[in-house]
Amino acid sequence: MTRESRSLQAVLFDLDGTLLDTAPDMVGALNDLRAEQSLAPVDYAMARAHVSHGAFGLVDVAFGRLDAAERQRLRDRFLEIYAARVATATTLFEGMETVLNQVEADGLAWGVVTNKPGNLTEPLLAALGLLSRCACVVSGDTVAQRKPHPEPLLHAMRQIDAGSGSSNAAQLMYVGDADRDIRAGKAAGMITVAATYGYIPADDDPLQWHADHIIEHPPQLLDILRDIARRIGPHSKQR
Which parts of the chain are beta strand (E)? Predict the structure, then answer.
């Protein structure tokens, strides 16, 4: 039995670069930090490509090689600045609202699995009116392991099961814009989708992640869901 021969129960999304375009606020916070150090702004496109690598990744792009203590100090200060503007310019990616509306209309659960800390993830989702719509939210500090370990995704599945009955990983789809997302999804046994519209450095090749599917725009996810539905028939609506 193939992974897609079972009824699909839920779609899980990475946050930065997959569900939400957080780059305007994250790069903005990074440039505020550079301004505090009397440095010029970083190139937006260059920094945007590294947003999925988190706070340390952005600090490395903006400040280069640092000793451990200074790197940690700048990362902590970056997070302070970012927390104050976490939802100022962040939006759903174009077409993603249509995707979420259709997923909900089809009776599928959806949720977020991210390495972003919970004290940033939940306020951001709440500010955009998304937190109450999520069947689960697993942040970078929710469980002991972070992606690419599969535990965050398996924890999300357990959260969804608590409200909808029994399922297994093969009935869940994970969408992400980084190799670690696809590695985590595959290790968890889920259907994987690589989002190439996300934050991907020029030297990274999404084809090498070997995801089950690749999308260049969020609405293409609906084509994949429709194709799966045609091949396996109506999904179970036991929620």
Answer: 10-13, 20-21, 91-92, 109-113, 136-138, 172-176, 191-195, 213-215
> Where a domain ends, among 83, 101, 134?
83
Number of domains in the chain: 2
Tell me which residue range forms the domain holding 45.
23-83
14 catalytic per annotation: yes
pLDDT in tens, 68-122: 999 999 999 999 999 999 999 999 999 999 999 999 999 999 999 999 999 999 9
Tokens representing residue 83 in the block: 């927390």
**pLDDT, tens digit (0-9, with 9 covering 90-100), for 10-34:** 999 999 999 999 999 999 999 999 9
Considering the domain architecture, whether residues 227 and 113 belong to the same structural domain is answered as yes
Mark which of 54, 83, 112 sits at the end of a domain. Answer: 83
Do 144 and 35 have their domain in common?
A: no
DSSP line for 56-110: HHHHHHHH-S--HHHHHHHHHHHHHHHHTTTTSS-EEPTTHHHHHHHHHHTT-EE
Task: Report which of 169, 181, 166, 177 is spatially closest to residue 215, judged by C-alpha positions.
Answer: 177
pTM of the model: 0.92
For residue 128, give the DSSP letter: T
Residue 195 lies inside a defined structural domain of this protein: yes
Question: Do 154 and 133 sit in the same domain of this protein?
Answer: yes
Q: Which of 14, 21, 177, 179 is catalytic?
A: 14
